[in-house]
Amino acid sequence: MPYIGSTPTSQNFISGTDYFNGTGSQTAFTLSRTVASVNDIQAVVNNVVQVPNDAYTISGTTITFTSAPSAGTSNVYVRYLSTTTQAITPSQNTVSWSTLDSNVQGDLGISFKNRIINGAMTFDQRNAGASVTPTNGQYTLDRFAISIGGGETGKLSIQQNAGSVTPPAGFTNYLGVTSLSAYTVPTANWFSLLHEIEGLNVGDLAWGTANAKTITLSFWVRSSLTGTFGGALNNSGNSRNYPYTYTISSANTWEQKSITIAGDTSGTWLTNNGIGIQVGFALGAGTTESGTAGAWTATRAFSATGATSVVGTNGATWYITGVQLEVGTQATTFTTAGGSYGAELQLCYRYCYALYKGDNIYYANGLYYNSTNVRTQIQFPVNMRTIPTITYTGYSSFYRDNTLDSQNVNGWTVNAGNSNTVQLSSSNSMSGTAGQSGMLYAAGGSQLIFLAEL
Fold it and tell me: How far apart are CA 195 and CA 221, in angstroms?
C-alpha cells in the first residue's frame, strides 16, 4: 500500500491484544480483562476499525458486535488502549512506599527507608578490618556494639569479613563473630550484637501511641550452627521488649531472614537524640534474660527463650550483613540508609569520626596557648550527635614554625566546642613560647577518634 512520506513503523502489541476467530454468527466475545469504557479499546474486524457504540458495545469482559463478524482465523482482534488505568489488587491488599521496588522508591525520591546505618557492614573506622575481642559496650564495625551482661571477656571475637567467606550476592562485606570457648551463659547474663537507632530517626514510627507503625527487620545470616536463634528489640530504658526468633536451616550457608513486628503502643520511646530503638541479635543469653518470642512485654530481655547460643560452642561462627529495618509488613530490596557510599559514611560520622591513622600524616595546625600547653581546633565533616569525647592512641608530633625541632603530644582532651567543632588541649606538659604556631602530624601509628555514640 502506498504512503505519502516515510513508511510508518508498525508494532504488534501482542500482550495488549486479544484475537478471535469470526464464525459468521457469533456476536459476543470474552475479553482477557475487564474494560471500563469502549474508549479503552480498539476493535478491528477484517482489518477495518469498528466505530465504538455503533459497531460494538462493552460490558465488563464482554464485547458485543451489532453484526456478527464474518468467518475467519484471527480476523477479529481487540487492542487495549489503556486510556483508563486498569485496577488490580496486590496480594497484601495495599500499596505503601515500603512495598515498592527500591528503584521505584529512588524515582519517587524516597530516602532513608532503612533505619539501620552501616547495615551492609561497609565501614570499620576503629579497627580497619582487624579482629577484636570486645568488652561490654565496645563498638566493633561502625554503629554495631557488643552488649555483655555479667562482664565476661574473651568469649568471642568480632571482625569485618571474618573467615573470608563470599558474602551474599549484592554485598561485599559482613560482620563476623567467632566463639572463643564453649561457654555456658549464666542465668542473668547475655551476649548481644547491638545496633542503637537514634530517636530522631524513628519518631515517625509513633511507637508508644495508638498510631504505632508496623516494621519489618530483615538481614542475611550465616552460621556454622543450625537451629532457632533469637534477638530482641528494646526501648532506651529496657522497659519495653520484643523477643523474636529466626531459623538457620543449613550450616555455613547464607540465608535471608525477615521478622515483621507490630509497633508498640505502650511505653516510652524517645524521639530526640537519645536511644530510640535498640535492635539486638543474641549470641547467647541466660534464662532470666530471655523471653517469649512474638509479643511486647514490660520486662527486659535480650533473646527468645530456648534460642541457640553461639558462645556455647567453641569455634562456632555467626556472620551477618544486609541488616534493614523499615516501615511496613514486608521486607523490600536492601538499600543503605544513606543511599550511596559517601552518604552512608556521613551518617556514620555523626556517631564516630576517625580523623587519621598512621605515621607522618599532617592533620591540623596548632599553637602554644601558654608555655606548656598546645591547642588545636578540629572541624567535623557533619554535625555529630552531641559534643564528642575522644580516644587517642599513639602520639602526635608538633613541629614548631621557624625551628627544626618537634615535641610529642601524647594525648588530647576536649577543651571547648560543640557538635560541629572542638578545641583540643594537649594533655601532657609541653615546652615552648605562648603564641608560637606549628603543624601537627600523626606519629607512632596514632589514631584520634571522636565519639558521640548513643
Answer: 16
Express each pLDDT in 274-300 by its tens digit. 999 999 999 999 999 999 999 999 999
Q: What pTM did the predictor assign?
A: 0.78
Domain CATH code at residue 152: 2.60.120.260
The domain in which residue 314 lies consists of 145-347
Residues 321, 288 within the same domain:
yes
Place of cell 541479635: 281
Give CA–CA dist 394/400, Å, rounded.
Answer: 20
Q: Note whether 156 and 311 are within 8 A (CB).
A: yes
Burial class (CB within 10 angstroms; exposed 0-12, middle 13-18, buried 19+) of 254: buried
Q: Which of 363, 421, 423 is nearest to 397 (CA)?
A: 363
SS3 of 375-413: EEEEECCCCCCCCCEEEEEEEEEEEECCCCCEEEECCEE
Say if residue 238 is exposed, middle or buried (CB neighbours under 10 Å; 0-12, 13-18, 19+): middle
Burial class of residue 280 (count of CB atoms within 10 Å of its CB; 0-12, 13-18, 19+): buried
